[in-house]
Amino acid sequence: MLITYVPNSHVESVLTALFAQGAGSIGEYSECHFSVDGVGTFKGSDNSNPAIGQKGNRQSVSEQRIELVFPSYIESTIISTLKTTHPYEEVAYSVLSLNNKNENVGSGMIGEISEPLNEMEFLKI
Predict the structure, then answer these.
(1) Is 97 helix (H, G, I), strand (E, B) or coil?
(2) Among residues 24, 34, 20, which one has the least CA distance to residue 71?
(3) pTM over 0.90
(4) Is there a contact between 35 and 66 (Cβ–Cβ < 8 Å)?
(5) Is residue 55 a contact partner of residue 48, using CB atoms and an 8 Å limit?
(6) What is the pLDDT of residues 72-105, one digit of tens each?
(7) 35 Cβ partners below 8 Å, 6+ apart?
(8) Is 22 left (phi over 0), alpha (psi -120 to 50) or beta?
(9) Which structural domains are found in the chain, ordered by start?
(10) Secondary structure of 11-44 in the HEC alphabet?
(11) Which of 91, 87, 67 is nearest to 18 (CA)?
(12) How far apart are CA 70 and CA 87, in angstroms?
C-alpha cells in the first residue's frame, strides 16, 4: 500500500497517473483510493529548489493524504510514477506491506474430529 501527501492542486494528475500504472485495483473495482485533507509544512535548505514557497522559509500547504493498494510486483513502477508526477522535489511517501495478499488463499482446513478438543489439544494435531 502506498501512502503519500499531495498538494490539492495536483491530486487528480497524480491519481490518474498511478491508476494508469495499476494502483488502486481491488477485485472487480479499479481507481480505489482513500484520501483525507490536511496541512503539510516544510522548510527548504539553501540547496533546495522548492516547487512551492521559498527556501529558508517554512511553508504550509493544503494537501491530501492519499492511500492506494497495488500488487507488490509493480512497486518500482508505482514509486517511479509518483516521483515523476508529484510536484515536490522531495516526495514524502511510505510503502506498507499488506498481509492479505490473496484473500482466496489461506492456511485453513476442513475436517471432522471424533471427539471435542480444547484449543491447545487441537493445535497439537
Answers:
(1) coil
(2) 24
(3) no
(4) yes
(5) yes
(6) 999 999 999 999 999 999 999 999 998 766 656 5
(7) 11, 64, 65, 66, 67
(8) left
(9) 2-100 (3.30.70.120)
(10) HHHHHHHHHHCCCCCECCECCCCEEEEEEEEEEC
(11) 67
(12) 22
Distance CA 52, CA 81 (A): 20
Cell reading at 78: 508505482
For 31: left if phi > 0, alpha if psi spans -120 to 50, otherwise beta; the answer is left
Q: What is the distance between the alpha carbons of residues 63 and 99, in angstroms, rounded to a whole number?
A: 28
Alpha carbon distance, N-terminus to C-terminus of the chain: 36
Q: What's the rounded Cα separation, in Å, for the pair 53 and 66?
A: 22
